[in-house]
Amino acid sequence: MKTQKRKRVSDKRLSPESSSSSSSEDEDGGIMLESTVSGGSEMGEKVETNEAEFVFLQMSEQHWFGCKTLLGSNVLHGPHSSALAEVIVGQVAVGTLLGNCDSDIFALASVINIDDVNLTRITGVNSVIKAVVGAAPTTVKSRVEELFSGGGKRGREVGWYVSERFVNTPLTLVASLLETLSDDLDWAVENAEGDGCNGKTEAQMYEFENLFFLAPIVTDDEKNEVLKNFEDDVLVRNSEYSYKVQIGSKPFMFACISMKKFKTSLKGLTRSWSSST
């Protein structure tokens, strides 16, 4: 699906007050996070401070390698990380990156229509969907099969919510990333001007009714299975249905969530994290 470049609706930045650590904002709007890396001040030792600048970036082909590396860290996308990264960075209308001035990418968030021809050509993606459908409990089997039947009607499109980030990404940054993604989705329906698929315009391809995602499952200190990222847990709890899927050697939680509840959940997360800092 071809995309039309556009100006970012709102470039999300953190003000000094919104960061949980000591921070400052440079003239270019980058976020400067400071952290103490050595202690012992009572003994007269020198306390060093590291500064890291983070910026929110629009999807661009120049960030392909950074996206590929981040996607490759997840066993779900590892075998097809190159091809999926190409689809993600090629979709300018919807999708946001968290990086730095050195082109390093620390987090990404995007939603891709499952009928996007560039996505359906990826063998690894088709294998993932086959595993998801195959693992569906009988109670939701027909709904899952319908979800992936393709050729969604206008206004009833299905999207794959793809999100990857460093595990220690500050929650205030994650909140801004997800808020920007929500803005992107609203903007694209009204303003995207590229060509879509199946006789639809690009804007019509973003008229999502439902989204699905696969959240990594990890084991906590008490040997309980939990979702790796807190935001995934919130989305799963607000989903229409969810169930466990084994992809390769790793477990994931598959969930389908309505577009309305997805946006409501994101807004709730951003409000919660903003008020806690």
What is this structure, in a nutshell?
With 277 residues, the protein is α+β, with helices and mostly antiparallel strands. It has helices at 64-72, 81-90, 117-120, 123-134, 141-147, 171-191, 202-205, 230-237, 259-275; strands at 23-25, 31-36, 49-58, 96-99, 105-113, 157-165, 208-219, 225-227, 241-247, 250-258.
Question: Could you describe the 3D structure shown?
Answer:
This protein is of the alpha+beta class and 277 residues long. The chain is 33% helix and 26% strand. The chain is built from nine helices and ten strands. It has helices spanning 64-72, 81-90, 117-120, 123-134, 141-147, 171-191, 202-205, 230-237, 259-275; strands at 23-25, 31-36, 49-58, 96-99, 105-113, 157-165, 208-219, 225-227, 241-247, 250-258. Strands 1, 2, 3, 4, 5, 6, 7, 8, 9 and 10 form a ten-stranded mixed beta sheet that branches. Strand 9 (241-247) and strand 10 (250-258) form a beta hairpin. Helix 1 packs across helix 2 and helix 6 (171-191) runs antiparallel to helix 9 (259-275). It is globular, with a radius of gyration of 19 Å. The protein starts with 22 loop residues before the first strand and ends with a helix. 35% of the residues are buried. Residues 2-49 have low confidence and may be disordered.
